[in-house]
Amino acid sequence: MAQSQPELQEVPQSDPLRLGADVPTAAEPRVADGGSEAGENGGSEAGESRCCCSAVKASRREIVQSPPSTNEPWILGTLDTPAGVVPRVDTRLRLADHLGTWRVRWGIGRMRYRVDPGLYAVGRPTAESPVLVSANYKMSFDKLRSQLAGIDAWVLVLDTRGVNVWCSAAKGTFGTDELVGRVKANRLDEIVSHRTLVLPQLAAPGVAAHQVKNRCGFRVVYGPVRAADLPAFLANGMKATPRMREVTFPFLDRVALVPIELVRWAKYAVLLAVVLLLLAGLGPEGYSWRRVAEIGAFSAGLLLAVYVASNILGPALLPWLPGRALSLKGACLGLAFVAALAGAFLLGLGPTESRAACLGWGLLIPAVASFITMSFVGSTTYTSLSGVRREMWIAIPLQAIAAVAGIAFWIAGRFM
Amino acid sequence: MPKLKYLGNVASLQLNQKRCIGCGMCVEVCPHAVFRMENGKATIVGRDDCMECGACAKNCPTMAISVHAGVGCVTAILRGAIRGTEPNCDCAKSA
Q1: Which residues in chain B have their CB less than 8 angstroms from residue A3's CB?
Q2: What is the pLDDT of residue A367?
C-alpha cells in the first residue's frame, strides 16, 4: 500500500470561510518515510507528477465537479438544499448490486465499478445530520449505504478512481487534498450547520485529520472500520469501542478473496499446464501424442488442481498452517499435497511414472503452493511491507530453484 | 482461531516520544492497536502487529511517528524490483 508523496507546506489560499491564516507552518516535509521520495510511482493525491512544485500546485487546484448522475436504479429521488439538488440514495441493495459485487470479486471490471463523486443523501437529512465520507468504488458505496437504513445522513463520495477506501488511502487518492476539494466543491458549509466529517477509519493512511480542519474548517472524526458498526457509532455520540477500531481477518473475509486470487496468476498456471501437457509427449522413442493425451492430461490437470487447491486452502487454513511467513505456510500445504499424491500413487491411482518424475512433482508442488500462498500477502489485513520484502528475499529464490529443479526432474522422467 | 501474526522484528515504525503531545490520534487510527496512551504519551505496545499502513504517521500533528509505508503486494514488489523503483502495482493508479 503506497504512502502518498510528502505533503509539503501549502501556501495559504484565498479564504472563503474566513478562517484566518491557520495553515500549518511545518517547515519540513510531513512524511518521514524513506521510501516515498525516491522512485515512488504512486503519484500525488491529485494524480500529478512527483516533483515538489507540482505537489503544491496540485493542492491549490480546485475540484470542478458536475453534480452526480441521478440516472441510477439506486437513486430514489432528489433533495433540495441551499447549495443545490442532492440525489437521495436507497439503502436497500438490489440483485444488480449483489451481482456487481460478485462480478468484481472475480476481478471482472473492478477498475470501472464506480459511482459519481459528489454529495448524496440517505433518508431525509437536515443541516444537523452527520456527513459520512466514502470512496467511489461502488462496492464500498454499497457496503456503506446498505448499513444506513433508517438513518438520515449526507454521504460525500470522493473520487478515489473507483478504488476502495483502504487501498486508495494508502495510495493517497483518498487523501487530504481530495477530501478538502470535495467539501468545497459541494459547498458543504452551506448545507450543514455543523463542521464534522465522519470518515471510515481505514481512510486514515491517506488523510491528515489536523490538516483538513485547517484547510476547510471541518474536523475529521474517524468512524468504525466496518460500516456495520456505523449505526451504533452514531447512536453512541460518535464514540467507537476498541473492537470497532480493530481490523481482523476472519474466515469469511479470507475466503471472499479466493476468486480474485484464483484470477491473479491463472494465466501463468494455464501456461505451465499447457507446457507440461505438450512436453509429456517426449519419450525415449520420440514424440507420442498418445502420451500427451494420457500423461500430459494428467500432469496438466494435477498442476491446475494444485494451483486451485493452494488458492483456496491457503487463505482458508491460514491461521492453522505452520509458521508466520506465508511462503512457509504454503510450502507446508504443498508438502501435504505431495503426501496425498504419494498415497494415491501407492494405492495404484494415476499413471505409472518414473522416480524422477515423482521427485519432480515433489519439488514443483510445494514450490507452486508456497508461491501462491505467499502471493496472498497483498490481500491480507496484517502483513507489513518490510516483512513481505524480507520473506520474498528468502522465499522466491527457494521457490524458483525448487520449481526449476522439479520441472527438470519431471522432463528427465519422460525418458525413463 | 489463533491470532494471525506476521514476521516479527521487521517493522520500521518509530515513535519520538519527545514530540508526542498526547493527542491520541495514533491510538484512534491504528487498525491493530499498536499504540496505547500511558502517562499522557503514546507508547508502542504491539510493534510486531504493525502492518506499516501509515495511518499513525499521517495523523500525528507533531510528526512524532515515522514508518516506511508502501505497496505490500507480491506483484508490486516484483515489479519494483525488476524496474528498480519502489513497489507499485497496477491497482489504484492515480493518473
Answers
A1: 54, 58, 69-70
A2: 98
- B85: closest chain A residue by CA: A39
Tell me whether residues B59 and A208 touch, CB distance under 8 A. yes
pLDDT given at position A53: 38
CATH number reported for the structural domain that contains residue B40 in this entry: 3.30.70.20
Which residue, of A229, A245, A261, is where some domain finishes? A245
Burial of A322 (0-12, 13-18, 19+ CB in 10 A): exposed
Distance from CA of A319 to the nearest CA of B (A): 6
Residue A43 has pLDDT above 50, yes or no: no
- Collect all residues of chain A within an 8 Å Cβ-Cβ radius of residue B74: 374-375, 377-378, 388, 392
Q: Give residue B45's domain range.
A: 14-69
The tens digit of pLDDT for each residue in A376-394 reads: 999 999 999 999 999 999 9
User: What is the phi/psi pair of residue A10, to 5°?
Assistant: -85, 140
Indicate the pTM of the whole model. 0.85
Joined grid coordinates for residue A371: 508461491
Cα–Cα–Cα angle for A384, A101, A234, rounded to 5 degrees: 70
Instruction: Inspect the interface and report whether the beta carbons of A3 and B54 lie closer than 8 Å.
Output: yes
Show the domain range for A210: 64-245
Q: Is the pLDDT of residue A22 over 70?
A: no
**Number of domains chain A is built from:** 2
Task: Say whether both A232 and A283 belong to one domain.
Answer: no
Write the CATH number for A157.
Answer: 3.40.50.11600
ipTM of the complex: 0.93
